[in-house]
Amino acid sequence: MPASLEEAFDALEQHPDAQLLAGGTDFMVEVNYAHRRPTAIVCLGKVEELRRWRRDGTDVVLGAGVTHSEIETPPLCDLLPGLAQAARTVGSPQIRNAGTLGGNIATASPAGDTLPVLSALDATVVVASRHERRNLRFDELMVGPKRTSLRPGEIIVEVRLPASFGSQEFLKVGTRNAMVIAVASTALVVDWEGRSVRCALGSVGPVVIRATQAEQFIASKINWPERRLPDPGALAEFTSLVRAAARPIDDHRSTADYRRHAAGICATRALERSFADNHLVERAS
Amino acid sequence: MSETIDYHLKVNGVVHEVVEAWLGESLLYVLRERLGLPGSKNACIQGECGSCTVLLDGRLVCSCLVLAASAVGCDIVTVEGLSPRDDGLSDIQAAFLAEGGVQCGFCTPGFIVSVHDLLSRNPDPTELEVREAVSGNLCRCTGYGRILAAVRSVQQARQR
Q1: Nearest CA-CA distance, residue B148 and chain A, Å
Q2: CATH code (residue B95)
Q3: What is the pLDDT of residue B84?
Q4: Which superfamily does CATH assign the domain made up of A167-276 to?
Q5: Contacts of A70 in chain B (CB under 8 A)
Q6: Which residues from chain B sit within 8 angstroms of residue A39, using beta carbons?
Q7: What is the pLDDT of residue B1?
Q8: Which of A67, A183, A190, A196 is least surrounded, with the fewest CB atoms within 10 Å of its CB?
Q9: Is A96:A87 a contact under the CB 8 Å cutoff?
Protein backbone atom coordinates (compact mmCIF):
# COMPACT_ATOMS: atom_id res chain seq x y z
CA MET A 1 0.00 0.00 0.00
CA PRO A 2 2.06 2.93 -1.26
CA ALA A 3 1.69 6.29 0.50
CA SER A 4 3.07 8.31 -2.42
CA LEU A 5 3.25 8.13 -6.19
CA GLU A 6 6.96 7.30 -6.01
CA GLU A 7 6.18 4.32 -3.82
CA ALA A 8 3.43 3.29 -6.23
CA PHE A 9 5.91 3.35 -9.14
CA ASP A 10 8.32 1.27 -7.01
CA ALA A 11 5.59 -1.27 -6.34
CA LEU A 12 4.67 -1.46 -10.03
CA GLU A 13 8.31 -2.08 -10.91
CA GLN A 14 8.57 -4.88 -8.38
CA HIS A 15 5.26 -6.42 -9.46
CA PRO A 16 4.74 -5.60 -13.14
CA ASP A 17 1.61 -7.75 -13.26
CA ALA A 18 0.00 -6.02 -10.28
CA GLN A 19 -3.53 -4.72 -10.56
CA LEU A 20 -3.98 -1.06 -9.65
CA LEU A 21 -6.78 -0.60 -7.13
CA ALA A 22 -8.63 2.69 -6.64
CA GLY A 23 -12.14 2.60 -5.10
CA GLY A 24 -12.59 -1.10 -5.88
CA THR A 25 -16.23 -0.77 -6.92
CA ASP A 26 -15.62 -2.44 -10.30
CA PHE A 27 -12.54 -4.53 -9.55
CA MET A 28 -13.87 -6.19 -6.39
CA VAL A 29 -17.01 -7.35 -8.20
CA GLU A 30 -14.78 -9.28 -10.61
CA VAL A 31 -12.74 -10.69 -7.74
CA ASN A 32 -15.85 -11.65 -5.74
CA TYR A 33 -17.28 -13.47 -8.74
CA ALA A 34 -13.93 -15.22 -9.29
CA HIS A 35 -13.55 -13.68 -12.73
CA ARG A 36 -10.13 -12.53 -11.64
CA ARG A 37 -7.69 -13.94 -9.15
CA PRO A 38 -5.10 -11.24 -8.51
CA THR A 39 -1.66 -12.25 -7.28
CA ALA A 40 -0.53 -8.69 -6.60
CA ILE A 41 -2.48 -5.49 -6.02
CA VAL A 42 -1.15 -1.95 -5.71
CA CYS A 43 -3.73 -0.01 -3.70
CA LEU A 44 -3.79 3.70 -4.53
CA GLY A 45 -6.18 4.68 -1.73
CA LYS A 46 -3.45 6.01 0.55
CA VAL A 47 -1.57 7.98 -2.12
CA GLU A 48 -2.10 11.49 -0.84
CA GLU A 49 -1.22 13.25 -4.13
CA LEU A 50 -4.11 11.50 -5.85
CA ARG A 51 -6.73 12.47 -3.29
CA ARG A 52 -6.34 16.24 -3.56
CA TRP A 53 -7.73 18.81 -5.96
CA ARG A 54 -6.72 22.38 -6.69
CA ARG A 55 -7.61 25.50 -8.66
CA ASP A 56 -5.09 26.41 -11.33
CA GLY A 57 -6.00 29.68 -13.05
CA THR A 58 -9.31 29.09 -14.81
CA ASP A 59 -9.03 25.31 -14.39
CA VAL A 60 -9.81 22.78 -11.70
CA VAL A 61 -7.31 19.96 -11.39
CA LEU A 62 -8.79 16.87 -9.75
CA GLY A 63 -6.59 14.13 -8.34
CA ALA A 64 -7.54 10.76 -9.81
CA GLY A 65 -8.51 9.54 -6.34
CA VAL A 66 -11.17 12.21 -5.76
CA THR A 67 -14.43 10.38 -5.11
CA HIS A 68 -17.81 10.84 -6.75
CA SER A 69 -19.14 12.01 -3.36
CA GLU A 70 -16.59 14.80 -3.21
CA ILE A 71 -17.47 15.87 -6.76
CA GLU A 72 -21.22 16.01 -6.05
CA THR A 73 -20.87 18.22 -2.95
CA PRO A 74 -19.58 21.79 -2.41
CA PRO A 75 -17.25 23.29 -3.34
CA LEU A 76 -16.56 21.02 -6.32
CA CYS A 77 -20.19 20.76 -7.44
CA ASP A 78 -20.26 24.54 -7.94
CA LEU A 79 -17.08 24.53 -10.03
CA LEU A 80 -17.99 21.45 -12.06
CA PRO A 81 -21.79 21.36 -12.29
CA GLY A 82 -22.00 18.87 -15.17
CA LEU A 83 -19.55 16.47 -13.58
CA ALA A 84 -21.42 16.81 -10.28
CA GLN A 85 -24.71 15.88 -11.95
CA ALA A 86 -23.05 12.82 -13.44
CA ALA A 87 -21.34 11.87 -10.18
CA ARG A 88 -24.66 12.01 -8.34
CA THR A 89 -26.11 9.39 -10.68
CA VAL A 90 -23.32 6.90 -9.99
CA GLY A 91 -24.55 3.85 -8.07
CA SER A 92 -25.55 4.64 -4.50
CA PRO A 93 -24.06 6.72 -1.66
CA GLN A 94 -21.92 3.72 -0.72
CA ILE A 95 -20.56 3.42 -4.26
CA ARG A 96 -20.00 7.16 -4.62
CA ASN A 97 -18.06 7.27 -1.34
CA ALA A 98 -15.66 4.63 -2.62
CA GLY A 99 -15.57 5.08 -6.40
CA THR A 100 -13.11 7.58 -7.84
CA LEU A 101 -12.89 9.67 -10.98
CA GLY A 102 -9.62 7.98 -11.96
CA GLY A 103 -11.19 4.57 -11.46
CA ASN A 104 -14.14 5.50 -13.65
CA ILE A 105 -11.70 6.55 -16.39
CA ALA A 106 -9.44 3.51 -16.05
CA THR A 107 -12.37 1.07 -16.14
CA ALA A 108 -13.36 2.80 -19.40
CA SER A 109 -16.83 1.33 -19.48
CA PRO A 110 -18.92 2.77 -22.33
CA ALA A 111 -21.51 3.37 -19.56
CA GLY A 112 -19.10 5.19 -17.23
CA ASP A 113 -21.18 8.08 -15.94
CA THR A 114 -18.50 10.75 -15.67
CA LEU A 115 -16.97 10.01 -19.05
CA PRO A 116 -19.33 11.97 -21.35
CA VAL A 117 -18.77 15.03 -19.17
CA LEU A 118 -15.00 14.70 -19.48
CA SER A 119 -15.40 14.44 -23.23
CA ALA A 120 -17.76 17.42 -23.50
CA LEU A 121 -15.48 19.58 -21.35
CA ASP A 122 -12.44 18.55 -23.42
CA ALA A 123 -10.76 17.32 -20.24
CA THR A 124 -7.05 16.61 -20.15
CA VAL A 125 -6.12 13.42 -18.35
CA VAL A 126 -2.60 13.42 -16.91
CA VAL A 127 -0.97 9.99 -16.74
CA ALA A 128 2.44 9.34 -15.27
CA SER A 129 5.09 6.69 -15.05
CA ARG A 130 8.28 7.09 -13.08
CA HIS A 131 10.09 8.92 -15.87
CA GLU A 132 7.35 10.51 -17.95
CA ARG A 133 4.15 12.49 -17.63
CA ARG A 134 1.74 12.54 -20.54
CA ASN A 135 -1.20 14.89 -21.07
CA LEU A 136 -3.92 13.07 -22.99
CA ARG A 137 -7.22 14.25 -24.35
CA PHE A 138 -9.99 12.08 -22.99
CA ASP A 139 -10.63 10.49 -26.41
CA GLU A 140 -6.92 9.66 -26.71
CA LEU A 141 -7.12 7.77 -23.44
CA MET A 142 -10.35 5.80 -23.92
CA VAL A 143 -9.81 3.78 -27.08
CA GLY A 144 -12.44 1.04 -26.80
CA PRO A 145 -14.90 -0.60 -24.43
CA LYS A 146 -12.90 -1.20 -21.24
CA ARG A 147 -9.71 -0.31 -23.14
CA THR A 148 -7.38 2.62 -22.55
CA SER A 149 -4.09 3.72 -24.04
CA LEU A 150 -2.41 3.52 -20.61
CA ARG A 151 1.03 1.94 -20.89
CA PRO A 152 2.48 -0.59 -18.46
CA GLY A 153 3.70 1.19 -15.34
CA GLU A 154 1.48 4.23 -15.93
CA ILE A 155 -1.00 5.61 -13.43
CA ILE A 156 -3.79 8.13 -14.04
CA VAL A 157 -2.71 11.02 -11.84
CA GLU A 158 -5.09 13.91 -12.40
CA VAL A 159 -7.77 15.40 -14.61
CA ARG A 160 -7.77 19.02 -15.72
CA LEU A 161 -11.12 20.68 -16.41
CA PRO A 162 -12.27 24.26 -16.94
CA ALA A 163 -13.95 25.69 -13.82
CA SER A 164 -17.50 27.03 -13.92
CA PHE A 165 -17.47 26.76 -17.69
CA GLY A 166 -20.51 27.77 -19.77
CA SER A 167 -23.77 25.90 -19.18
CA GLN A 168 -23.46 22.22 -18.39
CA GLU A 169 -26.05 19.48 -18.33
CA PHE A 170 -25.89 15.72 -17.81
CA LEU A 171 -28.82 13.38 -18.44
CA LYS A 172 -28.96 9.64 -18.02
CA VAL A 173 -31.62 7.07 -18.83
CA GLY A 174 -31.92 3.81 -16.92
CA THR A 175 -34.62 1.66 -15.40
CA ARG A 176 -34.76 3.72 -12.20
CA ASN A 177 -32.94 6.56 -10.47
CA ALA A 178 -30.64 4.81 -8.00
CA MET A 179 -28.14 2.03 -8.62
CA VAL A 180 -28.52 1.98 -12.34
CA ILE A 181 -26.12 1.48 -15.20
CA ALA A 182 -26.86 3.94 -17.98
CA VAL A 183 -28.82 2.75 -20.99
CA ALA A 184 -27.94 6.09 -22.59
CA SER A 185 -26.43 9.28 -21.24
CA THR A 186 -25.54 12.69 -22.58
CA ALA A 187 -23.34 15.53 -21.42
CA LEU A 188 -23.93 18.86 -23.10
CA VAL A 189 -21.89 22.02 -22.66
CA VAL A 190 -22.78 25.40 -24.14
CA ASP A 191 -19.77 27.71 -24.39
CA TRP A 192 -21.43 31.12 -24.61
CA GLU A 193 -18.20 33.03 -25.16
CA GLY A 194 -16.69 30.60 -27.66
CA ARG A 195 -20.10 30.21 -29.33
CA SER A 196 -19.92 26.45 -29.43
CA VAL A 197 -22.03 23.52 -28.27
CA ARG A 198 -20.43 20.24 -27.27
CA CYS A 199 -22.47 17.11 -26.99
CA ALA A 200 -21.00 13.80 -25.78
CA LEU A 201 -22.97 10.54 -25.75
CA GLY A 202 -22.42 7.66 -23.33
CA SER A 203 -23.59 4.03 -23.54
CA VAL A 204 -24.42 4.30 -27.23
CA GLY A 205 -21.14 3.12 -28.70
CA PRO A 206 -17.85 1.41 -27.91
CA VAL A 207 -16.45 4.69 -26.59
CA VAL A 208 -17.95 8.05 -25.67
CA ILE A 209 -19.10 9.67 -28.91
CA ARG A 210 -19.03 13.37 -29.69
CA ALA A 211 -21.98 14.30 -31.91
CA THR A 212 -19.88 16.80 -33.86
CA GLN A 213 -22.28 17.32 -36.77
CA ALA A 214 -25.11 18.01 -34.34
CA GLU A 215 -22.84 20.35 -32.36
CA GLN A 216 -21.84 22.38 -35.41
CA PHE A 217 -25.34 22.46 -36.83
CA ILE A 218 -26.99 23.81 -33.69
CA ALA A 219 -24.18 26.30 -33.04
CA SER A 220 -24.84 27.76 -36.49
CA LYS A 221 -28.55 28.17 -35.66
CA ILE A 222 -28.19 29.90 -32.29
CA ASN A 223 -28.50 33.66 -32.10
CA TRP A 224 -25.51 34.01 -29.78
CA PRO A 225 -25.79 37.68 -28.75
CA GLU A 226 -29.43 37.14 -27.72
CA ARG A 227 -28.80 33.59 -26.51
CA ARG A 228 -31.82 32.12 -28.19
CA LEU A 229 -32.78 29.76 -30.96
CA PRO A 230 -34.86 31.69 -33.53
CA ASP A 231 -35.84 28.60 -35.55
CA PRO A 232 -37.57 26.03 -33.29
CA GLY A 233 -37.44 23.51 -36.14
CA ALA A 234 -33.68 23.38 -35.67
CA LEU A 235 -34.23 21.39 -32.47
CA ALA A 236 -35.72 18.47 -34.40
CA GLU A 237 -32.80 18.49 -36.83
CA PHE A 238 -30.41 18.56 -33.87
CA THR A 239 -32.19 15.52 -32.39
CA SER A 240 -31.88 13.53 -35.60
CA LEU A 241 -28.21 14.45 -36.01
CA VAL A 242 -27.54 13.23 -32.46
CA ARG A 243 -29.34 9.98 -33.23
CA ALA A 244 -27.31 9.57 -36.40
CA ALA A 245 -24.09 9.99 -34.41
CA ALA A 246 -24.95 7.16 -31.98
CA ARG A 247 -23.55 3.70 -32.68
CA PRO A 248 -25.43 1.59 -30.14
CA ILE A 249 -25.75 -2.17 -29.77
CA ASP A 250 -28.52 -4.46 -28.55
CA ASP A 251 -27.74 -6.05 -25.21
CA HIS A 252 -29.46 -7.26 -22.04
CA ARG A 253 -29.96 -3.68 -20.86
CA SER A 254 -31.59 -2.19 -23.94
CA THR A 255 -32.11 -2.39 -27.65
CA ALA A 256 -29.98 -0.33 -29.99
CA ASP A 257 -33.12 1.41 -31.29
CA TYR A 258 -34.14 2.54 -27.84
CA ARG A 259 -30.61 3.71 -27.03
CA ARG A 260 -30.49 5.80 -30.20
CA HIS A 261 -33.91 7.26 -29.44
CA ALA A 262 -32.95 8.03 -25.83
CA ALA A 263 -29.67 9.69 -26.83
CA GLY A 264 -31.57 12.10 -29.09
CA ILE A 265 -34.11 12.92 -26.36
CA CYS A 266 -31.42 13.41 -23.70
CA ALA A 267 -29.32 15.69 -25.88
CA THR A 268 -32.28 17.79 -26.93
CA ARG A 269 -33.56 18.09 -23.37
CA ALA A 270 -30.08 19.07 -22.21
CA LEU A 271 -29.95 21.77 -24.89
CA GLU A 272 -33.38 23.09 -23.88
CA ARG A 273 -32.33 23.17 -20.23
CA SER A 274 -29.18 25.09 -21.10
CA PHE A 275 -31.34 27.76 -22.66
CA ALA A 276 -34.10 27.63 -20.08
CA ASP A 277 -31.61 28.56 -17.36
CA ASN A 278 -31.27 31.88 -19.14
CA HIS A 279 -35.04 32.18 -19.78
CA LEU A 280 -34.19 32.26 -23.44
CA VAL A 281 -35.82 29.19 -24.82
CA GLU A 282 -38.00 29.93 -27.80
CA ARG A 283 -40.70 27.30 -27.79
CA ALA A 284 -42.67 26.23 -30.84
CA SER A 285 -46.24 27.44 -30.49
CA MET B 1 4.36 -12.32 -3.60
CA SER B 2 3.46 -15.07 -1.13
CA GLU B 3 0.17 -16.91 -1.39
CA THR B 4 -1.23 -15.62 1.89
CA ILE B 5 -0.86 -12.45 3.90
CA ASP B 6 -1.17 -11.46 7.57
CA TYR B 7 -2.38 -8.06 8.73
CA HIS B 8 -4.36 -6.24 11.39
CA LEU B 9 -7.76 -4.56 11.11
CA LYS B 10 -9.32 -2.17 13.60
CA VAL B 11 -13.01 -2.95 13.86
CA ASN B 12 -15.34 -1.23 16.34
CA GLY B 13 -12.30 0.04 18.22
CA VAL B 14 -10.70 -3.39 18.61
CA VAL B 15 -7.58 -4.45 16.71
CA HIS B 16 -8.00 -7.92 15.19
CA GLU B 17 -5.29 -10.08 13.72
CA VAL B 18 -5.99 -11.59 10.30
CA VAL B 19 -3.75 -14.57 9.63
CA GLU B 20 -3.00 -16.40 6.39
CA ALA B 21 -5.63 -14.59 4.37
CA TRP B 22 -5.87 -14.65 0.60
CA LEU B 23 -4.97 -11.30 -0.93
CA GLY B 24 -8.28 -10.87 -2.76
CA GLU B 25 -10.59 -11.34 0.24
CA SER B 26 -13.23 -8.67 0.68
CA LEU B 27 -13.69 -6.86 3.96
CA LEU B 28 -17.14 -8.45 4.19
CA TYR B 29 -15.65 -11.93 3.95
CA VAL B 30 -13.01 -11.18 6.58
CA LEU B 31 -15.54 -9.63 8.97
CA ARG B 32 -17.91 -12.58 8.74
CA GLU B 33 -15.67 -15.59 8.22
CA ARG B 34 -12.47 -14.63 10.03
CA LEU B 35 -13.44 -12.13 12.72
CA GLY B 36 -16.78 -13.58 13.83
CA LEU B 37 -18.76 -10.43 13.04
CA PRO B 38 -21.75 -11.70 11.03
CA GLY B 39 -23.88 -8.56 11.44
CA SER B 40 -22.90 -7.32 7.98
CA LYS B 41 -24.87 -9.51 5.58
CA ASN B 42 -23.63 -11.20 2.45
CA ALA B 43 -26.07 -11.12 -0.44
CA CYS B 44 -25.08 -9.73 -3.82
CA ILE B 45 -21.29 -9.30 -3.48
CA GLN B 46 -21.46 -6.59 -6.15
CA GLY B 47 -22.45 -3.47 -4.22
CA GLU B 48 -26.08 -3.52 -5.35
CA CYS B 49 -27.95 -4.42 -2.18
CA GLY B 50 -26.24 -2.52 0.64
CA SER B 51 -26.76 -5.30 3.20
CA CYS B 52 -23.01 -5.34 3.93
CA THR B 53 -22.79 -1.58 4.58
CA VAL B 54 -20.13 -0.44 7.08
CA LEU B 55 -18.32 2.79 7.91
CA LEU B 56 -14.71 2.98 6.75
CA ASP B 57 -12.96 5.99 8.30
CA GLY B 58 -16.43 7.49 8.71
CA ARG B 59 -17.44 6.91 5.08
CA LEU B 60 -20.41 4.71 4.25
CA VAL B 61 -19.27 1.89 1.95
CA CYS B 62 -20.21 -1.61 0.88
CA SER B 63 -17.77 -3.91 2.67
CA CYS B 64 -18.08 -6.45 -0.16
CA LEU B 65 -16.33 -3.96 -2.46
CA VAL B 66 -13.52 -3.12 -0.04
CA LEU B 67 -10.36 -5.18 -0.40
CA ALA B 68 -9.84 -6.20 3.23
CA ALA B 69 -6.08 -5.74 3.08
CA SER B 70 -6.58 -2.17 1.86
CA ALA B 71 -8.45 -1.32 5.09
CA VAL B 72 -5.30 -1.72 7.21
CA GLY B 73 -4.92 1.43 9.29
CA CYS B 74 -8.57 2.42 8.82
CA ASP B 75 -11.26 2.73 11.46
CA ILE B 76 -13.96 0.22 10.57
CA VAL B 77 -17.37 0.42 12.23
CA THR B 78 -19.91 -2.36 11.64
CA VAL B 79 -23.50 -2.64 12.79
CA GLU B 80 -22.19 -4.47 15.87
CA GLY B 81 -20.37 -1.28 16.83
CA LEU B 82 -23.49 0.91 16.76
CA SER B 83 -25.35 -0.60 19.73
CA PRO B 84 -24.75 1.11 23.04
CA ARG B 85 -24.21 -2.17 24.92
CA ASP B 86 -23.87 -5.83 24.02
CA ASP B 87 -27.53 -6.50 24.71
CA GLY B 88 -28.90 -3.04 24.01
CA LEU B 89 -30.35 -1.38 20.94
CA SER B 90 -29.60 2.04 19.51
CA ASP B 91 -32.57 4.38 19.10
CA ILE B 92 -32.47 3.66 15.38
CA GLN B 93 -32.58 -0.10 15.91
CA ALA B 94 -35.45 0.28 18.42
CA ALA B 95 -37.38 2.49 16.00
CA PHE B 96 -37.01 -0.06 13.18
CA LEU B 97 -38.60 -2.67 15.50
CA ALA B 98 -41.33 -0.36 16.81
CA GLU B 99 -42.36 0.88 13.35
CA GLY B 100 -42.29 -2.52 11.66
CA GLY B 101 -39.25 -1.62 9.57
CA VAL B 102 -37.90 -5.13 10.19
CA GLN B 103 -39.56 -8.03 8.43
CA CYS B 104 -37.26 -10.79 7.23
CA GLY B 105 -34.44 -8.71 8.71
CA PHE B 106 -31.77 -9.47 6.15
CA CYS B 107 -31.40 -5.90 4.91
CA THR B 108 -31.78 -4.38 8.37
CA PRO B 109 -28.11 -4.14 9.45
CA GLY B 110 -27.26 -2.27 6.25
CA PHE B 111 -30.17 0.11 6.72
CA ILE B 112 -29.21 0.71 10.35
CA VAL B 113 -25.67 1.71 9.35
CA SER B 114 -26.90 3.95 6.49
CA VAL B 115 -29.48 5.69 8.67
CA HIS B 116 -26.95 6.11 11.49
CA ASP B 117 -24.60 7.77 8.98
CA LEU B 118 -27.35 10.02 7.58
CA LEU B 119 -28.61 11.26 10.94
CA SER B 120 -25.13 11.88 12.29
CA ARG B 121 -24.31 14.07 9.27
CA ASN B 122 -27.76 15.60 8.86
CA PRO B 123 -29.99 15.48 11.97
CA ASP B 124 -33.05 16.87 10.17
CA PRO B 125 -33.18 15.44 6.65
CA THR B 126 -36.04 15.98 4.23
CA GLU B 127 -37.89 12.92 2.97
CA LEU B 128 -35.99 13.19 -0.33
CA GLU B 129 -32.69 13.27 1.54
CA VAL B 130 -33.69 10.17 3.51
CA ARG B 131 -34.69 8.36 0.33
CA GLU B 132 -31.44 9.28 -1.40
CA ALA B 133 -29.41 8.27 1.68
CA VAL B 134 -30.92 4.78 1.69
CA SER B 135 -31.02 4.43 -2.10
CA GLY B 136 -28.16 1.95 -1.91
CA ASN B 137 -30.03 -0.37 0.47
CA LEU B 138 -32.55 -2.78 -0.99
CA CYS B 139 -35.46 -4.17 1.03
CA ARG B 140 -37.76 -6.74 -0.60
CA CYS B 141 -40.25 -7.04 2.28
CA THR B 142 -41.38 -3.72 3.67
CA GLY B 143 -41.94 -1.61 0.59
CA TYR B 144 -39.83 0.97 2.45
CA GLY B 145 -42.78 2.88 4.02
CA ARG B 146 -42.15 1.47 7.47
CA ILE B 147 -38.42 2.08 7.16
CA LEU B 148 -39.03 5.72 6.28
CA ALA B 149 -41.43 5.92 9.23
CA ALA B 150 -38.73 4.55 11.53
CA VAL B 151 -36.28 7.21 10.35
CA ARG B 152 -38.89 9.94 10.89
CA SER B 153 -39.61 8.73 14.41
CA VAL B 154 -35.91 8.81 15.36
CA GLN B 155 -35.58 12.24 13.81
CA GLN B 156 -38.54 13.55 15.83
CA ALA B 157 -37.52 11.86 19.07
CA ARG B 158 -33.99 13.27 18.88
CA GLN B 159 -35.35 16.78 18.45
CA ARG B 160 -37.50 16.58 21.54
Answers
A1: 17
A2: 1.10.150.120
A3: 81
A4: CO dehydrogenase flavoprotein, C-terminal domain (3.30.390.50)
A5: none
A6: 1, 23
A7: 47
A8: A196
A9: yes
Model pLDDT for residues A88-126, shown as the tens digit of each residue: 999 999 999 999 999 999 999 999 999 999 999 999 999
ipTM rounded to 2 decimals: 0.95
Q: Over 60: is that where the pLDDT of A279 sits?
A: no
Q: B49 with B102, same domain? A: no
* Stretches in chain B below the pLDDT threshold 70: 1-2, 85-86
The CATH number for B40's domain is 3.10.20.30
C-alpha torsion A232→A237→A239→A245, nearest 10: -160
Chain A CB contacts of B47 below 8 Å: 25, 28-29, 91-92, 94-95
Residues of B with CB under 8 A from a CB of A: 1, 23-24, 26, 45-48, 50, 53, 59-62, 64-67, 69-70, 72-73, 114, 132-133, 135-137
CA distance B44 to chain A (A): 9
Domain ranges of chain A: 49-162, 167-276
How many folded domains does chain B comprise? Answer: 2
Q: What letters, b where the CB count within 10 A reaches 16 and e where it falls short, cover B5-44?
A: bebebebbeeebebeebebbbbbbbbbbebbebebbbbbb
Q: Which domain holds residue B95?
A: 91-159
